[in-house]
Amino acid sequence: NNTYRKKIHPVEFNGTAFVYSKQKMLFPIGDDNNDRHTTPFINFALILLNIFVFVYWQELGRNISFTFAWSTVPAEILSGNDIVTGRTSETPGLQPTPVSVYLTLLTSMFMHGGIAHIAGNMLFLWIFGDNLENAMGHRRYLFFYLLCGILAGLSHVIGASYLNQNILTPS
Question: What is the pTM of this model?
Fold first, then answer.
């Protein structure tokens, strides 16, 4: 008896995204930029910078020392002091931060935890960033990108401290 069977909708490709047959978006792989009237230089530069940092400095996620030196650590932001733990049971080893700990709110925006992390982030930046840059203009888009990154870092700091999470966890 098929009365109680749930109807399964196959996934199809509609030219810009994989969608369920009822036109619900599953995973975007592109968009239509026919109405774009500016070249998204800032978006291209941000994507290249993210990839460069991940490949060259983070060594495809293998350079934990670099990542832990330049990522935002809630305890450092809350205290204003650099915390170096080395290798302990609590953390894999927070490294000396070569700049003010507050600058890690900017530098952490370019840190990624692995291939899937950077691939997902850059895919969405590629698809949506150019549209935002076209609508906002180059300078306002760069300001918006940096502001959102700083707010994301502060969200990690606030969330970790108020939800009683480990405030030594870098982000």
Answer: 0.79
